Amino acid sequence: MSTLHAAAEPATSEPGGVSRGVELYAQNCTACHGVGGGGDGPASLAFKPRPYNFRHLQPDVSEIDRVLRVGVPGTAMLAFPTLSEPDRQALAAYVRSLYGQAAEQGSLKAAAPVNKP
């Protein structure tokens, strides 16, 4: 079951959007999706299916928002009902910025959104 897919809309370029997304990603996502978004976090080996690799396919903002609100049935991806809409948008901006990037080692960095065809 594929729940994330390539998108036509660009990543948001709101000031602070990606930087807030970095903070949220570090707090909520790295254990499963890994620092660089490759689905290779320390908890990832325990999951079938494995966590999504954001570097290979860029999910659209509305799909990220939906997944954060309701989770993905049949997977370890739970909903994050306490995230506000602005926080979901910031997290989506950061997740979309990971697309096409090489694996990062070390700390999370605020990256400029990458738009690939």
TrEMBL record:
- In which domain of life is the source organism classified? Bacteria
Q: Where is the Cytochrome c domain?
A: 16-99
The entry's keywords? Heme, Iron, Metal-binding
What SUPFAM superfamilies is this protein classified in? Cytochrome c (SSF46626)
Return the InterPro entries for the record: Cyt_c-like_dom (IPR009056), Cyt_c-like_dom_sf (IPR036909)
Q: What is this protein called?
A: Cytochrome c
- Its source organism is Acetobacter lambici
